[in-house]
Amino acid sequence: MAQKSNILINTYEQGPDKEQAVHKLSNSLAGELPTRNHDTEDLLKQHYQNIHHIEDCEKDTKTTWAKQIVIPIAYAPCVTPLDQLNQISLSDLKVETHHRGSFITATTITLPYNFSSTVTIIQEVSTVTAVLVLGFQDDTISPLPQNSTVAIKEPYVQLNENSDYVIRVDHPSDIAVLRGDDPAVSMIMQFVAEKKDIKPVEWRSEGDRAFLEGKYSSAIECYTQAIDASLPLEETIFTQDAYRKRAFANLLAHRYQAAKVDSLSACSGTALDAKAYFTAGRACYSLRSYSESKSYLEKSLELEPTDIKARKELNRILIRLDEQENGNYDFAQMIREQESKIWLDHADFTANVEVGMTEKSGRGLFTTKDIAAGEILMSEKAFCLPDKYTGDGPSDTVLFNLNNNSRTPKAAQPALFRKLVQELYHNPQLCKDFFDLDGGEYVRNGKEGDIIDGVPIVDAFLVECIRLKNCFSAPRLSRNLLKRDCPEVETHLTTATWLRASYTNHSCVPNCGRAFIGDMMIVRALHALPKGTEITHQYIAPDASTLFRRKGFPTNWGFECACRLCSGERESPDTIHTKRTDLAKKIKKEALKMAPTSKIPIANIRTVERMMRKLEDLHERSVYANLPRLTLVHPSIWLMEVYRFSKNYTKMVRYAIEVLKNFGFGDNIVDIDNNNFSMKWEGGIVNTEAFNSLVIAAEGYDMLGKSVLAEGCRAAAKRMFLVLAGSEVGIERFLPA
Ligand SMILES: C[S@@+](CC[C@H](N)C(=O)[O-])C[C@H]1O[C@@H](n2cnc3c(N)ncnc32)[C@H](O)[C@@H]1O
Which residue numbers delimit the SET domain (predicted)? Predict the structure, then answer.
């Protein structure tokens, strides 16, 4: 975090360099008891100074204060239940040691500090105090309120120059918190203090009161007490009522699995079951189990056929089922929906693909039937997507990972990491599918997602490894990236995870394309794909230089790309690649520095044309006959634009077609003699620039009176638009007739 000279240094915002230095020092003292130079008063003073510092920063609207989240060197989460661990004291804790087999308990004695990480001061009964740092955060609750009791499993201690040492917790399952501000806890305490013998009906009334006040977790706790305190046989009606009420409280508290189980426990074979089935149906809908949801809604309607709400709910489920089973989506409605929210209410359609083993790339996705060009391969709702769409400006949060010395450039990446940890911790049923994804070389403990002490084991370091390998950058509406002459659009990106799509392997010349509408990803085939074909997409748009690409894939994803472009280009010697790349750079530096306008001197245009021919000559026919020639793409786009400005339609069309050739759509796209336009889709790279070239080529052929060729371009552009935007909705604004 940048520091201002007139305010105190914030000792909780050390930044990655300091953290790394302290880590080294800490390691050199591993296993020793830390020297205690700071007493409780010092720690408290420092803590509140840091809190005030953050408050000052937040008031300062002129400066951007970036959060610097540091992921320390990885360590495994505790997988032992609390009752099998031995309690130790804060004074037993040793530096740079994971106290395996042990736990500590203490009370938080300060308000939490909350910026790059959450920090508080904890105290033992024996009055020993220590600083506690949480490496994860939770937007759903304010972290670690004062007067909470914490139990920290297998605590890990790091040396710290400002506070002697800190206890660091990075896995949410390593800490249990009895929150000092939990209404359920305090209410039950008060209730218990006033009365000794509490009857089940009294618990239920307290539950009703809490429910009406919107305190759902308190209500759930009271209904649980009511159920537990009621007698097994005599109170059947009473307990069923309490289950029904707890089901509804669980539903509103987003605990859908519990809501479903409670609803079914509430069923008694009477007309009251209509309500229970309705709640079970809604819970299943939220769990995205639409067939099960339908069966409960039908049961509810059998008991109460005139219930309008249930009828409406059933209709909504039928729409989801049509999406899920047939891939029938109302895209216009979806696009309207994303204007007001990013998390959309739609089902996944994945029937056209299945996970299988590839020869060299681990698991991959394969088609389950013959697929036509443009057909939907799959459509999927994001597993986790943070609402952080940003451009290229400086990021307000940076994530440093000391395990690979990496630094994230965009704020959505740390936001996704934190949201993933939070979602997995609160929704254990999601763990299995998420932890099945590729996490690279990270050594797993094999208990990820297992429930221990009532919560799932969430290994935050593994979550980050999986995030790195499987996240996608996504605009809010892909259509907006095709923004030529369409100024209203916003092209910021976020980073998110889609589960099924994560099994797709990379190719620089892929056979499918993805598009986003809100948090829905729509994947379509670029050309016909027979049953059993492995589908591939581009992890990133390929850099024009093959030598550069060759280095990037092993570093970022741990593989060497052997797609037809990368392996084809290996046939050309590195010396020629270097010549090509150098010349492409020279063209860019000397000639393309001027944005294309009508005022470009003719001499400059000639220079670019001359250099471009030279660059073309550097492409061996034997290697590039059927391959994209990516270093030529930019000069050809520049020339197309320049001739567009000067209204030289013949040359504009010529260079538009060159762009398509250079993207790999074939050498004979236009057959002037036979008035025929046809592209070789297999082997071509579909992207915004290719789409724009088709739009410009159509415009040029129109101006030249060649309407058949113009129509050919439009038909191809339409096909690209479908893949790039996810649907044809709004195409008329991007592709004028
Ligand atoms: C998002 S995952 C794709 C699914 C993965 N193959 C699996 O088994 O779960 C990304 C990882 O798949 C592998 N991979 C993807 N594309 C590949 C390719 N073209 N060649 C070799 N390995 C590839 C790499 O290990 C990469 O880090």
Answer: 351-540
Rounded-to-integer distance, Cα 599 and Cα 409, Å: 37
Say if CB 416 and CB 422 are below 8 A apart: no
The pLDDT tens digits for 666-718 are 999 998 888 899 999 999 999 999 999 999 999 999 999 999 999 999 999 99
> Cβ(375)–Cβ(328) under 8 Å?
no
Q: For residue 232, with 0-12 CB atoms within 10 Å meaning exposed, 13-18 middle and 19 or more buried, which class applies? A: exposed
Q: Ligand 1 centroid vs 637 CA: distance in angstroms? A: 32
Domain 15-178 has CATH 2.40.50.140: yes
Measured CA to CA, the distance from residue 251 to residue 273 in angstroms comes to 16
Q: What is the dihedral of CA 591, 593, 599, 603, to 10 degrees?
A: -10
- Cβ pair 618, 579 in contact under 8 A: yes
Return d(Cα 731, Cα 439) in angstroms, integer.
39
Look up tokens 């786009």; give the residue: 637
Is there an atom of ligand 1 within 6 Å of 564 CB?
no
> From the CB of 502, is ligand 1 less than 6 Å away?
yes
469 lines ligand 1 (CB under 6 A): yes
Question: Domain boundaries in the chain?
Answer: 15-178, 185-330, 561-734
pTM of the model: 0.92
**What is the full DSSP assignment across 224-260?**
HHHHHHS-TTTTHHHHHHHHHHHHHHHHHTT-HHHHH
Classified as helix, coil or strand, 401 is strand
- Reported as half-sphere exposure (CB side, CA atoms, 13 A), residue 86 has a value of 6
Q: How far is the CA of 525 from the centre of ligand 1 (A)?
A: 19
Of the given ranges (52-56, 64-68, 141-145, 360-364), which has the lowest mean pLDDT? 141-145
Q: What is the DSSP string of 644-670?
A: HHTT-HHHHHHHHHHHHHHTTS-S--E
Q: How many CA atoms does the CB half-sphere of 238 hold within 13 Å?
A: 20
Question: Which atom of ligand 1 is nearest to 507's Cα?
Answer: 19
Residues 421/458, Cβ–Cβ less than 8 Å: yes
Q: Is 454 in the pocket of ligand 1 (CB under 6 A)?
A: no
Distance CA 700, CA 451 (A): 64
Tokens of 152: 């920290």
Question: Is the separation of the CB atoms in 135 and 117 below 8 Å?
Answer: yes
What are the contacts of 591-594 at 24+ separation with CB within 8 A?
591/635, 591/638, 592/634, 592/635, 592/638
| Residue 442 near ligand 1, beta carbon < 6 Å | no
DSSP assignment of 5-46 equals: TTS---TT--HHHHHHHHHHHHHHTTTSPPP----HHHHHHH
Return d(Cα 606, Cα 614) in angstroms, integer: 12
**ipTM of model:** 1.00
Q: Is 360 in the pocket of ligand 1 (CB under 6 A)?
A: yes
* DSSP conformation class of 104: E
Q: State the fold for domain 185-330.
A: 1.25.40
Sheet of strand 520-525, all strands in order from the earlier edge strand to the far edge:
376-381, 520-525, 512-517
- Residue 271 CB neighbours (<10 A): 9
N- to C-terminal Cα distance for the chain?
Answer: 53
Domain 561-734 has CATH 1.25.40: yes
Domains 185-330 and 561-734 share a fold: yes
Is the CB of residue 557 below 6 angstroms from any atom belonging to ligand 1? yes
Share of the chain above pLDDT 70, in %: 94
The angle at the Cα of 553, spanning 550 to 554, to the nearest 5 degrees, equals 95
Atom number in ligand 1 closest to CA 502: 1
